[in-house]
């Protein structure tokens, strides 16, 4: 007889031989034992988890001559014929190659006929999600009300592709991926039965490569046994499965810790030349870093290591890492794995990930004594101080509250970063200030605001021109941050000056000042000049001497009133105070 692969020779023939899936086996066995089976079942789960094997075992138990039983006897004529595939009452249907509605109608027409030699006529439809919509519609009515002698078992790896009307008419069983320990245990049973010596580390490498699929694991085991000859070695397993050796992991980890990106990239290039898939490499690195983190946090759980073997060298490597570094590297690799799915240049993503890991700074964590580091304390203190100052500025700037005390004003001036109050320039403007200049600017203020970009005009929402000479004007800002942003934005300054010159006919240079600083400078200038601020009964010539004395509160210079007077004339505009 021709050689048969391990996964065919050692396919489970009873529920007790199945690996894992305890929740599925117990439910089906109880239903068989107490005659509570239904007409339709849906087995869903990843590939190689035993869906088709469970369907055949269930079919044998239903038609076993010793029924009701929780396990098929595998000795009666019915069980033997099902095992050989010669039983005409158990029909296996591959939906992947027979997805058209015509094939489904042919099955439906034969459903009404009674079984020839068995209690039930059982239809096992594999990869059922591949059926067309028409085929599903044809199956729907029969699946809802089949004859008493018919049982449907549907198997799929993608249950989300099935119509809900189909799923709701079936008892659904979700098969889980096999654990690495379960896969290793099954391979040990197979090798012991075949009298083949084995190395447990080799079996771990195969189980890791199988990614939870028992069929994949047995197929890889078959390849390794054929490749190795008399004795399986770790090198043979790494070559067949496409994995990399633990020594290579050590070398790359050492290069990354030493920030030797040249060595790390050279080792990566060597792995790619040897035929290693970068996508698989990323997955292996994530698992390796996870093993390092596991040994750091729970040294006694070395049995849970998935990729690395528990040895003194591995423990020494784990001690050299900070947990924060491993968390960061796992995060970088996970994001790289997601990005690789949409690119054909997977090697470039892997190289970029190594560069990020070398260049990234490890997050600052608490020291071993439980206290924060001095650098972290200094940063937190600075941020807290900044938050308090901003809150105070907002409080003083809104709701018409009184001006802050002089001591607080000086403090706020000192904390401005990168902005120096141009006191001398402001005093020059005040010495040469004229009322016509400030009126010209305020009259055209609304028009200029409307012509600016939204991002630029937003800076001026809480700003106001308060004094002007023939070549400059003082622009007062309610908030210090807006003042600093306007002074540092050269694009805004250029556009603002050009528009102002276009509408006023003069080239005015803006001088920026925060509200608190303006009040202090204005007060000092009035005292030094012998002027009287706030006197509304002054003569006209006095007002021209002191055109800025009623700056923010002067109603006659309201920009909206000025614009209305410009459009309709002063004789037709009346101002009513609310």
UniProtKB/TrEMBL annotation:
Keyword ATP-binding: yes
Keyword terms, alphabetized: ATP-binding, DNA replication, DNA-directed DNA polymerase, Metal-binding, Nucleotide-binding, Nucleotidyltransferase, Transferase, Zinc
Domain AAA+ ATPase: start-end pairs: 37-178
Region (Disordered): 394-417, 532-556
Single GO cellular component term: DNA polymerase III complex
GO process terms (BP): DNA-templated DNA replication
SMART domains associated with the record: AAA
EC number, as in UniProt: 2.7.7.7
Database matches in Pfam families: DNA_pol3_delta2, DNA_pol3_gamma3, DNAX_ATPase_lid
Gene Ontology molecular function: ATP binding; DNA binding; DNA-directed DNA polymerase activity; metal ion binding
Family: Belongs to the DnaX/STICHEL family.
PANTHER family named in the record: PROTEIN STICHEL-LIKE 2 (PTHR11669:SF0), REPLICATION FACTOR C / DNA POLYMERASE III GAMMA-TAU SUBUNIT (PTHR11669)
Protein name: DNA-directed DNA polymerase
Source organism of this protein record: Planococcus halotolerans
């Amino acid at each position: 007889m021709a050689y048969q692969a391990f996964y065919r020779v050692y396919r489970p023939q009873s529920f007790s031989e199945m690996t894992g899936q305890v929740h599925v086996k117990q439910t089906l066995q109880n239903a068989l034992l107490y005659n509570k089976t239904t007409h339709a079942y849906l087995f869903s789960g990843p590939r190689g988890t035993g869906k088709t094997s469970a369907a055949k075992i269930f079919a044998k138990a239903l038609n076993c001559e010793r029924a009701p039983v929780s396990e098929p006897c595998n000795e009666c004529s019915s069980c033997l014929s099902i095992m050989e595939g010669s039983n005409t009452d158990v029909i296996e249907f591959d939906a992947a190659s027979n997805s058209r509605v015509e094939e489904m109608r042919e099955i439906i027409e034969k459903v009404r006929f009674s079984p020839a030699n068995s209690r039930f006529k059982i239809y096992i439809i594999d990869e059922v999600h591949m059926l067309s919509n028409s085929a599903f519609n044809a199956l729907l009515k029969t699946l809802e009300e089949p004859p008493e002698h018919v049982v449907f078992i549907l198997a799929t790896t993608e249950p989300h592709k099935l119509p809900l009307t189909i799923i709701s008419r079936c008892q659904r069983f979700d098969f889980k991926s096999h654990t690495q320990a379960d896969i290793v245990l099954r391979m040990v049973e197979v090798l012991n039965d075949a009298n083949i010596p084995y190395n447990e580390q080799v079996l771990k490498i195969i189980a890791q490569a199988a990614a939870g699929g028992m069929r994949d694991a047995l197929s890889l085991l078959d390849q390794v046994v054929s490749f190795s000859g008399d004795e399986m070695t770790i090198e043979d397993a790494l070559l067949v499965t496409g994995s990399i050796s633990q020594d290579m992991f050590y070398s790359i980890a050492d290069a990354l810790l030493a920030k030797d990106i040249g060595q790390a990239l050279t080792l990566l290039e060597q792995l790619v030349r040897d035929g290693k898939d970068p996508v698989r490499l990323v997955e292996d690195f994530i698992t390796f870093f996870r093993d390092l983190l596991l040994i750091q946090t729970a040294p006694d759980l070395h049995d849970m290591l998935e990729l690395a073997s528990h040895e003194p060298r591995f423990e020494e490597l784990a001690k050299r890492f900070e947990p924060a570094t491993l968390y960061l590297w796992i995060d970088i690799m996970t994001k790289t794995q997601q990005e690789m799915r949409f690119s054909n240049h997977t090697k470039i993503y892997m190289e970029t990930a190594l560069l990020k890991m070398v260049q990234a700074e490890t997050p600052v964590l608490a020291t071993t004594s439980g206290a924060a580091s001095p650098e972290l304390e200094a940063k937190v203190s600075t941020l807290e101080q900044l938050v308090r100052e901003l809150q105070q500025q907002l409080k003083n700037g809104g709701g018409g509250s009184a001006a802050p005390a002089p001591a607080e004003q000086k403090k706020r001036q000192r904390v401005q970063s990168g902005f120096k109050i141009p006191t001398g320039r402001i005093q020059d403007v005040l010495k040469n200030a004229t009322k016509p200049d400030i009126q010209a600017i305020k009259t055209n203020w609304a028009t200029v605001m409307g012509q600016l970009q939204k991002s630029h005009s937003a800076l001026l929402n809480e700003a106001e021109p308060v004094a002007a000479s023939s070549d400059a004007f003082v622009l007062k800002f309610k908030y210090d941050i807006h003042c600093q942003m306007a002074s540092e934005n050269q694009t805004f300054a250029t556009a603002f000056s050009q528009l102002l010159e276009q509408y006023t006919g003069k080239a005015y240079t803006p001088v920026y000042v925060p509200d608190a600083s303006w009040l202090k400078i204005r007060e000092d200038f009035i005292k030094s000049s012998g002027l009287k601020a706030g006197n509304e009964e002054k003569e006209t010539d006095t007002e021209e001497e002191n055109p800025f004395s009623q700056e923010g509160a002067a109603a006659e210079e309201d920009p909206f009133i000025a614009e209305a007077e410009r459009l309709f004339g002063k004789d037709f505009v009346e101002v009513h105070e609310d």
